[in-house]
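Sanity check

After download, print the first record. It should look like this:
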Amino acid sequence: DGKAGFTGAVDLQDASRNNSDKAKANEEFLEILAVSHSVLATIDGNGARVYEAESPDESALVSAAADAGWTFHDRERHQLSVLVRDPKTNKEETRMYTIQALNAFTSARKRQSVVALRPESGERVVLVKGADNVMMARAAKVEDWLEPHLRKFSSQGLRTLVLGSRPLSDDDWETFRIAFETAQKAMDNREQQLAAAADLVECDLKLVGITAIEDKLQENVEDTIEVLREAGIKLWVLTGDKLETARNIGFSTRVLTDSMSILTIDADSCPLDAIAAYTAECCETARNYVETGVVVALLITGQALELLSSGGDDDLVLRLGSYCSVVIACRVSPLQKAQLVRLVRYGVHPTPVTLAVGDGANDVPMIQEAQVGIGIAGREGKQAVNSADVGIGQFQYLQRLLLVHGRWNYRRACKYTLYSFWRAAVMVLLMAWYVFISGFAGTSLFENWVRASYNIVLGVPILCTGIFDRDVSEEEAIENPKLYGTGRKGVELNAWKLCETLASSCIHALALVATTYLSEPHFVAYGNGDYYTMGAAIFTWLIITQNYRVAFLTTTWNVFSLAGLVLSFLMYAVFLFGYCAFKWKVASFSPWMYGILPALYETPAFWISCFVAPGIAMSLDVLKYYLVLAFAPDERDIILEAAADRPSGSTENMLDEAAPPAELTFRQQQGSLGSPLVDSQARPRGGKGGLHHVRSAVEVSMRPSASLTAGPASFGGMSGSRVRAMPRREVAWSSFDWSAVDGMGPDIFRCAPSHRGDNTLPSFSTSHGGWNTFGGRTPGVSFPNAGANAAAGASLRAPSPRARLPSNPQDASHRPSRSAFAQQKLPSVQFEPRRWSACLLFGVGLLLVGLGAFTRLWKNAGRVVVTYDGPAVDNPDNLNRIIKGDVHACHVQADQPEASTCELTFKVKEHMEAPISVDYSIDPYYQNHASYIDSVLFDQLEGKTLSWKSPGGEHCSRRNSVTPDEKTIFPCGFPATTLFNDQFEFPGLTKVFRTTGVAWRADMSRYKNPIGYPHEGGYSWLFERYPDIISEEDGVHNEAFAAWMRVGFSPSLVKRYGFIDRDLKAGEVIRVKISSRFLLHEGASKSLFITERGFLGGPEFGFSSFLVVFGVLCLLSSGFVKLTEKYCPRRRGRVRDHWCCKACARLLCCR
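Expected structure tokens:
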């Protein structure tokens, strides 16, 4: 008739007016609704009565009773007032009930009751309402009308409650009172004792009626479930509804489909002693179905689960569930929900990730048991949200939460984890390599503070990638749910990925080792081949390579991604400058780091290697990833390629804000019978449903109102629902922002609250009495069914403008930010290096070839090598790689007590330009041994102390600190007691040969003799131990000593001795006189280098050849990529049918 609201009240009034029997039955029915509850009545700011209830079911039922003439008015202590309208006279009278006891509803009891004294007769009665199975078990007699109506309501997807009552005698009351009061005072097992006391009166009940409450679906629940299933997620729906209700809700939500083979296990239809055998039979049937490609679904009741669990057949249930695409468990308690989640979580191997979704307090155990818990904020309260890991406003947001944010963040976390592992592995492998060339002494490749900065400097870029990176857009992620399977299957992070990452780290570490091996001689040629300078250089190359790796892994580039890389390099530059440019007095800082920056800057090999190291790494990465994409693409690539090749079509985005229609419409939904529950004009069909009682089945009409919530489970249709459509111009549309991530828009103050203080869900209000619709409950996943409910007969009042304001304006501060940063909509560019493989390989190849050709075409420096002591004298061909040039041997003779001498005359083969460096080499000599490095007390070198027992001198052992005649060695330590004291003379070049300028200025500026030098007695001074090398005036401030003290990087030790300051012409005869005093250990050799300064510092040791060869390989790889793409491409969206070797025989036919 177009009238909004609950029209069943008219039928009830007519029945009561015309038939006394029906009047009595109606009165008994409505009395239970109006009295047996825990609702509180309050007055809002507009003077309207508002019901505050623990659940929307209870509030809706009280409102329905009020529409039918029994209005709950107020509650004061134990007094409850009800306004009862006489159906004949239409007058209202107030009835005061005395509530003597309240037995609260619990998930275990599944019922609620009160003991009340009726106002007129003083009769004591028990008024009960509860689930049909528990009420029928406690009924004195189950009438024939009950079962058909329950089945009818269940087939419509409605939630049912059975109402009953019984008079209570004084003796029964006294027995109950004593038990009830004792239970209330109990400290242990209080809930169990209260339940036992309630059982004393909740028996022999007279069943007076049934209520049916619509558990309405939110929008897009069916689509969301369908998408989740397409993503490969197995759904277990855990609900407290009846089996028939659960089945119909399953069809209406597309959890179940007609193409499925549905197995049902119900304890009521199966002998109790045969339940396990029947389940085993179902398991075998399901296995056979799966083998033939049939999709299987399972419906199982809570009672059957309890019987199977008590019989130890949990594994049977799990095995059966593993064969099923969908499992719906109905009539399950909250404890059973948690047990099922635990069963899946710990019983399935490999261990799955369980995600539980619910919106009510009864879903909390399940949410907390799952690895991931999601709470939906609705009219059921905030218990689920407060107990969950994630809170959402509507069930449909699971699409974005899982398919978009879940997948994005999974890939980000995988990238972050694998990169962190890769980053640590590369550094550890480099340090492990250095162990082999440091005498297995455990010497760290990097100085301690430099090594400590590693994770700090490299932490920012990968953090930006871990926050902002996206391999696909949100539209692509939603349109291709199968992409979610990569995370579900653990494709991005598994044992194979870790092995692959470890192999990649080994290759990158080898690339850095090769770069170091080929560039180190050129550092030595510049006099910068010491342990600290080479360590800083390698660390710099490592930082560049690591940041390149982040760039290679990053797909989405925005301002933060770029800033992260820039900040990383800036942090490292600032750290290195701050650490190496100042003379720090901090004990934990290494004084040897001071002055290495000029050494790095003046070495060309350092700058070339800054491009070579990441270039090699990039070429290897790009080629590897191209080969994977071309010959073994992953599932993500196949899906995206297939999606890109599909014809474009408009796809409705469920999350976009829809424009207000001319008339408010409801989404057409269908129940299991296939009949439309909403007509094509979007006007719900009136129908039977809602309230039934013992004498009559009354047609009622329900409407969504402020007292009701519409939620996605029990997934009911809109049967029996009548809503008045409003013109567009009269509707104040919700400010809920569907385009925002969390849905909240800036104009939330215009949103009519669903209840006091709750502004989390969309609402509508009109000037015509209005109607509100609120997102409510969802089935849990497991998807437990928990429903925000639309109930029978709720009155509707239009909210005033004042009532539409939130009770707490500060709640607006909790709205999500609409900034591009918060919404992850920053301007960005997508770039995948592997899709530009040919260009990148070609670019790296050109760079390496160009660098190699540049260094190769530069004039090669000449070198004369004189080996004069050790095995190399007799076999110069066995000299180390670093000894390259015109080699001569000079056999020393022991013609002096403390020295051996030799003289050698040779001709210069090629012209050598000044300045010409004169260096000595000891190979091998492990100056880089940890104990050798740590034995130096730098305070002695700076003249701060004489004693080796000062702080920091703990590594100066007695052996290198005290002479046999008990004199204190100054300075202490292995370097100062093993000073190289061989001498070289060039008789024909005396005027142009100098031994100055061989030490670093930074070192010489700090070396000072201590107070008391050289007159302090009891000390063994340097000039006393090495009179031919160090004068008394110099002491520690001696260049030869300073050059020796800066320890070498490798065991092929080369130190600067002096310079020849004029050109040596080709054919010129040079005479050299060598005095050998330095004692060698067995197997070592000593040599003298006369080296011309070239672009790289000395002779070319294969560095440029390596660059050219590797660059050519990159160019060839680029050509291979182009030829493969042209003549042997892989069909987009499909894996390759055969390998390229087979395709090469067919060339153009391989498509």
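If your output differs, re-run the checksum step. Summary of this record's structure: The chain has 35 helices and 33 strands.
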